[in-house]
Amino acid sequence: MNQQKLKSATQRRAHQGYTAGLIKKACSSAVVLYRECGRIVLALLLWTGTAQAQTKEDLIAASQAGASPLFFSVNAEKVPLVTTGNFSDPRECTVRNGLPNFFHKVRAGKPVTAGFIGGSITQGNACYRPQTAKYLQSMFPDVPLKAINAGVSGTGTDLGACRLRDQLLQYHPDLIFVEFAVNGAYAPGMEGIVRQIWQFDPEIDICLIYTINNGQTKIYAEGGIPANIQGLEKVAAHYGVPSVHLGLEASLLEKDGKLLWKHSGEAPGKIVFSHDGTHPVLAGGNLYAAAIARSMQQMKHTAEPVRHLLPPALHPGNWEDAAMFAPLDLATFKGGWQQAEPMKQFAPWFPYVMQAATPGASFTFRFSGTAFGLFTIGGPEAGQLRITVDGQPVSLTDSPLAGTRIFSAGEQPLLNLFNRYCSNRYRGQYDLVALEPGDHTVTIELSGEQADKAKILGPQQQGDISQHPEKYARTVVYLGKILLKGRRI
């Protein structure tokens, strides 16, 4: 196929939305590169499957590859309108200072925007977010309500603090729900999110919501609170923001034999909460949303506007100074980099990516702070990076700080962008590197050294790498954003 035919064929596929039939004909993931007006355009052809929408699409665990549209409908027909139900437990919601500005505006009939930021349970289409937005609209049906989905699967408060302004604050939300309990529950990151919000606008209301993993139901059922959530509760109490334990009702139902937290099939007479122990199916998501609905009913009575004040920081090293930048706004590139337009799947995150496939290609930026990172697209061809800071090579630890993707100084000379999620798929992912405080010059270079990708995938994921070794033999980086904990200089 010549250049013009390739271009028009790819354009037709884009307009047709990569229909399931065409994708299945592709048989496997592929990357197609073609030139348009002097630019490289990246089209990521991904087999996604269309059967069993509840488990293939709505459950983000099975589709955490890309982004979701930021704004979503609050009145989608397929989304059920939850009720508060009959459950009552004083542990479920701690009102503290409530949501006074949000309820003041809706009582006055003014348009409002609700933002949701978190991991895969927020991004998912049945896990709680759409039901919650629909319930908020039902409380005030005549008030125009917009809703933002800033969920990014597989990410914690470290990346959340970096992307907060870009994906939420610039749209001036009136209320922000923050969900990161199952993705590390890194308290300094959570505090950074709270402080950033009120530094941007002290009239934005915040509500922390706590989801749980498989096994944590027993802690609630025995009267306790999971340890990771306890750290987040300290942040909530310090700032006087309300918090909601979304899993409490489900935990007690499970204790009474009325709910299966993790179950893959039918269970007559019982509620199936999830198929994987983490991501709710629709019935489980309804329980999560009902907990928020009950909490809204408790908080709606406080509606006198206030300007939230920032007390001294609870964690001196919190992430209030975190941000992310488009690559060309911060760095200089050399050695074979091309500006690439990602397919629709990643557009809500990355207006463009910088991509390179030539070992030795590098980019350099300067900043003042304590950490930097990369928000990238991972896939079969993801390579490794060599890092130099202030003229000295940097080696990293084997694993990041618990609850984060933050690496510190160690023995590994390269940052490997390939991981077990990169088998026959493309996904958003990120890595951060901690540094001593100060002004830094960072250079990142694409290495020609290959990671042992077959070993990383393990024995259960050998099919695609065995059938298409050429995809995995490539060494490529797709850079969407540069992350900073600090400030650009």
From TrEMBL:
Annotated protein name in UniProt: Acyl-CoA thioesterase
PANTHER family for this protein: EXPRESSED PROTEIN, SGNH HYDROLASE-TYPE ESTERASE DOMAIN-CONTAINING PROTEIN
GO molecular function: hydrolase activity, acting on ester bonds
Domain of life: Bacteria
CDD domains the UniProt entry points to: SGNH_hydrolase
Gene3D superfamilies, per the entry: Galactose-binding domain-like, SGNH hydrolase
InterPro entries hit by this protein: SGNH_hydro, SGNH_hydro_sf
Residue ranges of domain SGNH hydrolase-type esterase in the record: 116-280
Organism the protein comes from: Chitinophaga cymbidii
